[in-house]
Amino acid sequence: MSSSISMSEIIISNEAEHHHESSNNMRNSKWVMDVKEKLDKIDKSNEVDEWKKICIYRIPACVKDLNRKAFNPQAVSFGPYHHGDGHLKQMEEHKHRSLLHFLKRSTIPIESYMDALHRVGKHLVDSYDWLDEASDDYRDQYGNYTDQFLQLMMLDGCFMLEILRTATETSDDYASNDPIFSSHGKLNIMPYVRRDMLMLQNQLPMLLLDTLLAVENGGKPKDEESLNKIIVKFCTQNTLTRSLGRCLHVVDVYRKNLLQEPRHKVLHQTHSYSRDDTVESSFEIIRSARELYEAGIRFKTSKTVHLTDISFRGGVLRLPEILVDDTTESTFLNLMAYERFHVGEGSEVTAYIFFMDRIIDSAKDVSLLHSKGIIKNALGSDKEVAKLFNELSKDVAPDDSLDYVHKEVSDYCKKKWNEWRANLIHTYFRSPWAVLSVLAAIFLMALTIVQTVYAIHPASP
């Protein structure tokens, strides 16, 4: 018995010694030491500054899984997130060729460009959210950029500038049969590059493009609006007519060009409802465009194409004209993703999509808006357009920025005459046959009245 107790004590003693040793090892582990070091440095004001630096985000799986093709480039990668993707490697050769053309035309040595990029390298690498498995290649353990990161910035930055210049300049230093920069390439390849350039994960910091242009310009920074104009021209084929101010990347330029300036100018210019009224109205069922039309609401195009230029006055709902094609879904998903992840940016694009989703239920609604010049359908059937708007708002946090318009429309529809009119049209005038039946009934009733009158008061001989 005593030997048994002695053995138990030995086992317990060994376990305690092992536990103590493991505890000491854990206390001295690299992970614990790293946490303690970071704990001493944590500061709210520093965190605010760090988050402000990020403007190019990696889309999380919960968002990307809804439509992976909309967030992943199909033709070209810009920046570190998709660099090295197998299906994009073919474009790397064209990037290197464009770099040589850029440098030859510039006549400024590549060392001058790299020196300039070194001076802003920390700002460039801090623009990216999370570099995961590629972090060792582009960012060291202290968060600083690597030479490989700057080489990537130089290569991709020059290629993007060469691409953008095709919208405003005609360069004769490329071969007439160049697969990218010839007229053939502009027609057949550029549309895919343009689509990829409007993906949030596929962005380059505007600081990079500004730095390259400044060196090319002899060290003198160019007006920020000149680059904005080139981007707008390339992405929309339209000319920028107003100042967008300092932008963060191509997606930011494109988004700001879609919105009215100053922000919220149109979103809040006409409504007189309190915030409480707006919140209440968000729970109301919003009718479709066809139902609103039956209630007497007229649809007209807004004076501008800005997504925020939506208003309701005097029974007229004004909406901006929009072209819907095979790039619309990808573009809007990325714009909404940018609004979701970039804190403080606003949610005007998301508000517009929610508004359109509420008034579009079927192909009939699209057909009505098309007949009023609001929707330009280059996608296919009206049913496809309706499906697109209905799916764009999936798993996106609701935005109530336009709820005041919904409330004004709802109040208008609730007026007795408008309710009666809508019910009349819905019940008796939904189809040509129903209209004919009503007209026939009216004709027969009128004929019966005439016959009755003649029977009571026959014509004098």
From TrEMBL:
UniProt keyword Transmembrane helix, yes or no: yes
Stored Pfam families: DUF247
Transmembrane segments: 433-456
UniProt entry keywords in alphabetical sequence: Membrane, Transmembrane, Transmembrane helix
InterPro entries: DUF247_pln
Protein name according to UniProt: Uncharacterized protein
Transmembrane helix as UniProt keyword: yes
